[in-house]
Amino acid sequence: MICSTNYYYFKSAISKEDCEKIRHLGTSKLLETAVTRGDNEKSDNDKKAIGNKTFEKIRKEGDIIENYYVRDSKVSWLDEPWIYSLLQPFVTKANKEAGWNFEWDFSESCQFTKYTPEGFYSWHQDAAADNSNMYKRYIHGITEEILNTKKIPKNYVRNNNWIGKTRKLSVTVNLTDPSEYDGGNLMFDFGDHSKYDRFHKCEVAREQGSIIVFPSFVYHMVEPITRGTRYSLVMWNLGRPLR
User: Fold this and answer.
1) What structural domains and CATH numbers belong to the chain?
2) CB 3.0–4.6 Å: which of 34, 162, 168, 179 could bond 135 by disulfide?
3) pTM of the prediction?
4) Tens digit of pLDDT for each residue in 89-108?
């Protein structure tokens, strides 16, 4: 799907005080390691960081995706009502002003993320916004769990508010003053047929408290951190699949 507006931003929309409050809350719950890796049988130590390479470039180099890990960060999960009250009005405004007018009615738990030097999150979509990414009901003893780990399979959930819905609008908030880190820019890939440059560095997001809202099917990444630490908050907003 191609949109006339690929993302919508609010510069320094969240106060420094609220950013610090979220940072304190997120770090107090830190952190599980979020390192997404390939699926082959190589040990983690034998895999390479994908960094800012695209999958296309890796294939052109004659390599395979499974030889890389595509994310390196630490995360915690926040579901405090005041955070939703703070962010959701910006989602509503961006959805209208950008002309997307997506139907959405619920927000997932917010993901607080800490990126340290060499930390990154390579190219990915948050969801395709169609039936292929729709959340399904998890039923203990009936839904098959992932062997060995006993984890709930991808896209299966217990929360009734998520069932039958998919991610439509993604939100990212920069919680860190730009003087505290280098690298770590949010990047977008608008695709081959974009009327804009395909790869776009979203430097407007570097101001502390800035909010970026974009359709969840847009490919994006966080460049590797080269100095300091970057803290961010991500929220996904759900609705029935696009038709």
Assistant:
1) 11-208+215-239 (2.60.120.620)
2) 162
3) 0.84
4) 999 999 999 999 999 999 99
